[in-house]
Design goal:
Elements: E1 11-15, H1 26-32, E2 35-39, E3 50-53, H2 56-65, H3 68-73, E4 75-80, H4 91-97, E5 103-108, H5 128-140, E6 148-149, H6 153-163, E7 168-172, H7 186-196, H8 210-233, E8 237-240
Parallel strand pairs: 1-2, 1-7, 2-3, 3-4, 4-5, 5-6, 7-8
Helix pairs in contact: 5-8, 6-8
């Protein structure tokens, strides 16, 4: 079982689904890092040391596709949320899937913090709910070590990565563009098709309005700016290799 600061001082390459992976020498980037991690269906293309996943239907799809070494060699980190979010991995689901190498985090509930407590430059005017999340990330992470602050899957993973002790974290395949263009849509289309049988409200990002994607991009970018600041404050480094 993992524990806090288990990888103190080590470097990590965190791989996402975006097309920016095509802009770098991935073999070189993987070799440069002490450890590698990936999110959701990216594990199908890159067998990394750590696998982060939040949704039940994605993990079900991925686990069917993976070889025996996935169960044996990859540390799976379930980004569990509150049970009312029925698509996300919860404690009941976790207990069914748990293995000796699984590390589970359960999110905190956002505190009622005045948005004025957030003092970093903003890309745009965000809603009060978004400002509460940003304020929590800035002021309460990484000090609440047994929980993470619920926002986006990427930021939840980066909080866990911080608490595992990694000193330098490099991102590739995240925040590539406001359209969130993926390197390969095949796996996403397959697990969304399965998920729609159970969750009628699921839709592909490709079906979202350009305005909604752009706003989501700006919010995610603000979250990354916040986490980069927190990493730096605590003598850690967070680098986005795609440069968006």
């Amino acid at each position: 079982m993992l524990h806090f600061n288990a990888f103190l001082g080590k470097s990590l390459l965190f791989i996402g689904p975006g097309k920016s992976k095509e802009q770098v020498n991935m073999k070189k980037q993987i070799k440069k890092a002490d450890y590698t991690a990936c999110l959701n269906d990216v594990i199908i293309d890159y067998m990394t040391d750590f696998y982060f996943v939040g949704e039940k239907f994605i993990y079900d799809y991925v686990s069917k596709k993976m070889p025996e070494s996935f169960v044996r060699d990859v540390t799976k980190i379930f980004l569990g949320l509150h049970k009312k979010h029925n698509k996300r991995i919860d404690k009941t689901y976790f207990k069914k899937k748990i293995t000796n190498d699984t590390f589970n985090f359960v999110s905190s509930r956002a505190k009622n913090i005045d948005s004025s407590a957030y003092d970093l430059p903003l890309l745009k005017k965000f809603t009060p709910k978004n400002m509460t999340v940003l304020s929590n990330l800035l002021n309460y992470f990484p000090y609440r070590q047994w929980e993470y602050i619920r926002s986006r899957t990427l930021s939840n993973a980066l909080q866990v990565i911080y608490n595992l002790g990694f000193k330098e974290v490099r991102l590739i395949g995240f925040m590539d563009s406001p359209t969130f263009e993926r390197a390969n849509y095949k796996n996403q289309e397959a697990y969304l098709k399965d998920a729609k049988k159970k969750y009628k409200d699921i839709r592909s990002p490709k079906d979202c309005a350009k305005k909604d994607l752009n706003n989501s991009f700006k919010y995610q970018k603000q979250i990354l700016d916040t986490l980069e600041h927190v990493y730096k404050q605590n003598d850690r480094t967070l680098i986005n290799l795609c440069g968006s």
